[in-house]
Every structure is written in C-alpha cells, then in structure tokens.
Amino acid sequence: MGKSRARRFRRAPPAPSGPEQGDPEEEPAAELLEKLQHPSAEVREYACASISKLLQQKHVIPAFLQRDVVRCLGPMLLDHSLAVRETAAGALRNLSACGGFEVCDDMVTKDVMTPLVALLKECSTGLDANQISPKKCREMNKNYIEDIANEAINLLWNVCECNSTAVSIFTKEGCLEAVLHYMKKFSTNVDLAISVANCLQAVTEDNPDLLSSFNASAQQVLETVMLCPETTMKHVLLRTLIAGTIWNIKDTIPPGSLGSMVNAILKIFSESLAIDAGETIIRMNEAEKNRLKLAAEAETEENMSDVIDNCAVSEDDDMEEIPKGKVRREHDISDLLPSDKWELKEVTALLMAQQTALEIIVNMCCSEDPSDDEWEELSSSDESDLFMENSYNEGSGLLMSPLCLSDEVHSAFLNNLIPKKILEKTAFPNSVALDICMHNPSWKPLIKKLNTVQCRALTCLHSILLVSDVDCLGGASALQSLAQHLSQLVFSKTELPEDADFLEAITSALRALLQTMASKNISQCMTPEQLLALCEAGIHSSNASVRVNVVSILGISGSVLAKLQDTAETLKMIGKFLLEVAMKESSLVVAGEALDALFDVFADGKEAEKAAVQMKLLPALKEFQPVFKLRMRKEGKEQCSTDQLCVLDNVKMNLRRFIAYQETLGKNPT
C-alpha cells in the first residue's frame, strides 16, 4: 500500500478592499461606466467608488464584464486625479478578488497589465519625490501615492496568483525593482509592505526567469525586512512572508550560505508559531474594551467641556466664540488612540502569519514538481513495497525520496524546535478565545482562521512524518504519544468530527503516522474499535481524500493485526468494511484504495487466512473482479488522471494475483 503524497499550498488571493456591501440602490452598470468619461474628477471618482462597492457582489460582475469594465477602468489607473487612480485600482482589485480565476484571466486578456505596470512604475518614481500638492489632496495626512500603490499591488497580487501570463509580464517588464522600492517603506507603512510581500510570494513561486533579477541589492532589501526588530503582529506577518519569498529564491543563495539562510527562515517561522493565538485573542480583546472605554470617557468629557464653554460664552459677550468640537485639553488623548479595530487586525495578522509559516513548511517538505499542487492519492501494494525498500537510507536518517529534506533544512528544523511547535498548533483552539469570538460579531471570523491554522498544522505534521526518520521524530515513545494525541483530537468530543477540512488533515496525519509505526514494528495505541469508528465517519465524507485516507488507515492497522494472535474476528470486521467500500464506492480511486488495503490485510498470517475463509473473501473477489475491470474501462479515463490510472492498473493486476494466491491457500490448507 502506497503513501499519500504531501500537499503543496499556494497562497490565497487577497480579500476585496473596502467594507462588504449589501444590495445598494446604485445606478446600473452602464450609467456608472459612462460617468468614467465625465470631465469632473469628482464624478469619475464617485463612479469608480460606486463600481468598487458593486463589484464585491458576485452576481453583478457579469453585467459589468458584458460592458467591458476592464477596458473602461484600465485608463483610470493613469487618470490626472490621484483620487480617481486610487478608487479605480480598488475597483479592479475587487473585480479580481471576487471574480475568481476566469475573471482574472479575462482581465489579463483585456490588457489590464499595461496601465497597471505603468502605474506601479510611476508610483515608485514619485514615492520619495513628495510631489503631491495640497490641491490634489483633500486630507493633509493622506499619502495618495502609497495608498494608490497599495491598491495596485493587491490587484497585481490577485492577477499574478491566478494567471501565468501576468507573472511573465511582471518578470519581463522589470516590475521587481518598483515593487522592492515600495518594500523599503516597511518602517512607516507596514500595510503596504505586507501587500508587497504577499505579491512577491506569488511571483517568485516556480518562476526561475525572475531569479536573475534578485541581485545583491534586491536580496539586501529582503534581508533588512527579515531583521526588522518590531514586535507587532503585522511585523511578524511581514517577516514570515519575506521568509517565504527567500525560500522561493533559494537557488540564488550561494551554497556556503544556504544553511544559515534556511536557519534564519525557520527561526522566523518558529518565532511566529511560538505565539499563543488564544492568549493573544484574550489579551487583544481586553485591550479593545479598554480602548473603547477610554474613548467613551473622552467623548463624555469633551461634551461636558463644550457645555461649560458655551455657558462661559453666553456669560461674556465680549469673548471670542470657540468653535464647537475644537477645544483641546492638555490631557486629551483621543487623537493618539489607535485606529479602529487595530486589536482585531493584529490578531488577524498573527493567524495569517502562522498559517503562512505552516504552509511554507509543508512546501519545504514537498517535491519541487509543480504537478504536486493537488492531492494525488496514489497507492498500490507493489509500489509501496518498492518505495519502502528503496527510500530509507540508514546513513542519513532521512527518507531519501522525491519528498526529502536536505541536510540544511533537517538540521534547522531540529534547531528551531519546529516539530514541537507544529504539534502545539494541532490542538483545538483555546475555549475562552473561542467564546470571545463567538459572542463578538466582528471577531467571529477569527474562528475559521483558528481552525485553519489547526488544519494546516496537521497537514504539516503529515508532511514531516513522510520525510523524517523515526529517531528524528523522537523515537518509538514519541510516536506512541503522538498517536494518543491524534486519537484524543478525534475522540475527545461526544461526536466524531464532521468538518471536511479537519477530517482530511487529521486522517492524513494518522495515515502517515500509522504507516511509519508499522514500518518500524512500533505498537499502535488506537484500538480497532476506535479505528473502525473513525473510518465509519470518514467514509461518508464528501471529500474523496478523506475516504482514501480512512481505508488506507484500516489497511495499515489490519496488516499489523494480522501478525498477532486471536485477531481473526477483528480482521473479519475490517475485511467486510473494506470489501463493501470497494464494491459500493462511487469514486474509482477510493475503490482501488480499498482493494489495495484488502491485499495488505489478508496478505499473510494464520489469523488473516482464518478471517478470509469465514467472510468468504475469495468468492466475493472473484465475483467482483469483472465488475472492477468494467468500471475501469468505462470510468477510468473520465474520472482519473494518468498517474491514477497507472496505479489502478497495478491494483487490477494485483487483484488477479491476490485471487490466485487465495486459491493456492485453499488448495493447500495448513
């Protein structure tokens, strides 16, 4: 039975800009697009802002696309009015974020990159020039150049995340220099720097053509950000994203510096993962309450002061009237208070940093082959045996397969206690923090982010189990403790988990762990009853990867039990379960995995032979064999990838061999 392949993560595109809108009573698309040609800059800005709000609703996007919204908004990126540029960039950003891959492809086809690249370069040139006159700014404290750049960078991130042509244009047009110039503003505008860092991660992934642009000067910019001592959660996120970018361009690092570079990257990840998100939520929620209380008290004090001032004015007609609301007191701190919801933004940044760190660690454990982006559940008895025979290298202490950790990465993993910190993140979120989020509408979205971090940690654990030797993981006792921990995650609650993402992550980790333990003859801590309960829950999941994992888990556990005494009854239960899955499963890949697991369970041993006879396994498989062949002919090419078809062909061949093997046992009973 084969191992599951590790999963590679790609960064999720950024969210739309601005607050999400309901169904606004706005002018129809045609009228708003027509207003983009109005001679008044204020009207053009209004039109861009209205379009931006509407584009956050997916159902209105087709109406705008039919009216060529991209070509209408594109020229607005270079409008004479800075306010129009910013709102136009925001509208295109929302279109790319809410429209998805097909819309981003269409935007690139409609040549959004030409004005976007021009805007990015122009903003970069004017970033330090301080050329903005008061006439062009309604607010003296607003930096239009940086705000425009932030919207444009997010738009660039979106289209580059979804479209390879956009990445090629980024590379060929030399956009890296402009983007890195924005990054230099990280000390005064961390939000802009975070947007740039997200974009850099997207354009540097699997992009060898860009590597030559990362000269010593470019690398120095990234290194400066990585060494930034600021401790806010936004800066933690920024450093994490930059570390991910440096990992993407690792081929530009001299071999002699590779070890220190990897260690620096994992140190940043370690620092990010060391922060307790639950405690941070509790602390930040309390800070928010205190801030709002101070703000309310300051507002009350100001109102009382206004009343007193107005009374004083009425008593003395000769006094100059003081404009209402303009009174400043010596201890007035209202202007110094943080911006709205900064505490929530800090927690969000932390969770994003931890999710990003975990995803990059998963990618560090994965093959560099881009085809590994998706789960490919490939398995067969013959392939598995060959894999286990050829992949373990006693001298290196690593699994020397396409999924392998270099010596530098392996050493840095241990030095920075990465496995320990990943394990901590696999636990369920802090119950007090969850309660805070549950009862605070603006904090409620954090619950999903907390759960995502847990799932990423489990996926990370799965990847590490695939590529690390038992001794590197702490030995047999550590693996048994890990098995107990994972079983507690599954069985600690009254009902088995149903969330598809969690089930996929936990079953993947369990599958890799049990395979590792079985290969080293380490006794497994989960009882057959627990495993069957988990598999009963998992086999009904809509996620095919979960179903593949649970039948594989049963196959691993069954093959271990087959070597023990008095296990025939349990093997019979496992066998019936797997046989039923093979016969009734809608997915051909899952059915093949179930057959593969059956071969492992009943491959050898007196107890397995006894159970096979009692459950009449041989006649059942002989009857099912032509059905499986027919399914492969009819459904194989439609449902399966080329690699999956190769594995299924192997399963079909092994089914014939296994039937012959069972017939031999029947002729020569022992």
Automatic annotation (TrEMBL):
<feature type="region of interest" description="Disordered">
    <location>
        <begin position="1"/>
        <end position="28"/>
    </location>
</feature>
<protein>
    <submittedName>
        <fullName>HEAT3 protein</fullName>
    </submittedName>
</protein>
<dbReference type="GO" id="GO:0042273">
    <property type="term" value="P:ribosomal large subunit biogenesis"/>
</dbReference>
<feature type="domain" description="SYO1-like TPR repeats">
    <location>
        <begin position="408"/>
        <end position="664"/>
    </location>
</feature>
<feature type="compositionally biased region" description="Basic residues">
    <location>
        <begin position="1"/>
        <end position="11"/>
    </location>
</feature>
<dbReference type="InterPro" id="IPR052616">
    <property type="entry name" value="SYO1-like"/>
</dbReference>
<comment type="similarity">
    <text>Belongs to the nuclear import and ribosome assembly adapter family.</text>
</comment>
<dbReference type="Pfam" id="PF25567">
    <property type="entry name" value="TPR_SYO1"/>
</dbReference>
<dbReference type="GO" id="GO:0051082">
    <property type="term" value="F:unfolded protein binding"/>
</dbReference>
<dbReference type="InterPro" id="IPR016024">
    <property type="entry name" value="ARM-type_fold"/>
</dbReference>
<dbReference type="InterPro" id="IPR057990">
    <property type="entry name" value="TPR_SYO1"/>
</dbReference>
<dbReference type="InterPro" id="IPR011989">
    <property type="entry name" value="ARM-like"/>
</dbReference>
<dbReference type="GO" id="GO:0006606">
    <property type="term" value="P:protein import into nucleus"/>
</dbReference>
